Amino acid sequence: MPLFQKKNSAIYISSRIRLARNLAHTRFVNSADDNLLEDIRSKCADALAKVQKFKGGKFYAMETLESSQRHMLEEKHWASKELADAGVSKMGLYVSKDETCSAMINEEDHLRFQSISSGLSLGKIWRTINSVDTSAERFLEYAFSPEYGYLTACLTNVGTGMRASVMMHLSGLTHIGEIERVVRGLNQLGMVVRGASGEGSDSYGAFYQLSNQQTLGISEDEIVKKISKFAKKLAEFEINARYKLLEDRPLFLADKIERARAVLASCRLISASEAIGHLANLRMASDMGLLDGDCTELLDSLITSVKPAHLREIFSLPSEVSADIRDAARAKYLKQHIGKIPVLRKL
């Protein structure tokens, strides 16, 4: 069966754009006291409530949430890890009613807008988040320099304040041992490739985030076009790597796929990282047309569900639970769903 018959391969997981903004004449978050942080949060939340995109949305004061609730927001990609970990600070989160846009308050910057969509869709996201940013600026005065652009807490974000990224599934490049060489090449071209959760994170299941490094001296439209261009080129490398696996190492590929299914079907304990790794191998097989049916959407759902906060909600687990109990619940959940995943076709 030919590989990649679909118009938009599942190599592209999602696209995201983040804009960093700060209030004029106001200390940055890292030098503000609690009273100022509370004032910043109040001003930003009041302004966002007037923005059309956020009308009917939800506002969260992070210190009022339990750890499990904060990390659920992180796993849904509405909040960063830094925001989820901060349980006592004056941080906030606004999520739009349709859950496609969020705004983090008092994370590293006073405001960080972000919008996420499935597939390779940076152009669409940029139009959405640009409209939100323009609307918010009617109610807030941003820290802006005519010479340098938007002023941010970290110098690497000065200028546009934009980070555009595409989450990609690069199992083929990982399995043939080419991922590090490709990453080094992209870094030399001004791109950044990180693990799925951003800077400093691991790439469980070979999920990687491609994003821009330059924010100063380049326009937002140029960043969007540049990232889209390199994402397409990276997808070509991944497709070639998958063909190479199929042609040169079919037994290795079949073993990865069948071993993944066997472990998920029989394990008693399994960590999130191991589960995601095996589900990712099955995901690659589904996208390549190697399974007796397409189950990519199911596998994407399982990859999300086996993460700690989601798993805790599914099984009503307490916030503090031993690793064995959590890993046993994850194994039980996977066994309940493994039968829905089609078997491997003959290679």
Based on the model shown, name its key terms.
single chain; alpha+beta; Creatine Kinase, Chain A, domain 2; 2 domains; eight-stranded antiparallel beta sheet; two-stranded antiparallel ribbon; 10 strands
Brief account:
It contains twelve helices and ten strands. The protein has 347 residues and is an alpha+beta fold. The chain has an eight-stranded antiparallel sheet with strand order 2-3-4-5-1-8-10-9. The protein has a two-stranded antiparallel sheet with strand order 6-7.
Draw up the topology in text.
Blueprint: E1 12-21, H1 34-48, E2 58-61, H2 67-75, H3 81-85, E3 92-95, E4 101-105, E5 111-118, H4 122-136, E6 144-145, E7 149-150, E8 162-169, H5 171-175, H6 179-188, E9 191-195, E10 207-212, H7 220-248, H8 250-266, H9 272-287, H10 296-305, H11 308-314, H12 323-337
Antiparallel strand pairs: 1-5, 1-8, 2-3, 3-4, 4-5, 6-7, 8-10, 9-10
Helix pairs in contact: 2-11, 8-9, 9-10
Describe, in plain words, how this protein is organized in 3D.
This protein folds into two domains: 12-240, Glutamine synthetase/guanido kinase, catalytic domain (Creatine Kinase, Chain A, domain 2, 2-Layer Sandwich); 250-340, no CATH class. Helix content is 44%, strand content 16%. It has helices at 34-48, 67-75, 81-85, 122-136, 171-175, 179-188, 220-248, 250-266, 272-287, 296-305, 308-314, 323-337; strands at residues 12-21, 58-61, 92-95, 101-105, 111-118, 144-145, 149-150, 162-169, 191-195, 207-212. It has an eight-stranded antiparallel beta sheet. The protein has a two-stranded antiparallel ribbon with strand order 6-7. Strand 3 and strand 4 form a beta hairpin. The longest helix is centred in the C-terminal third of the chain and has 29 residues, at 220-248.
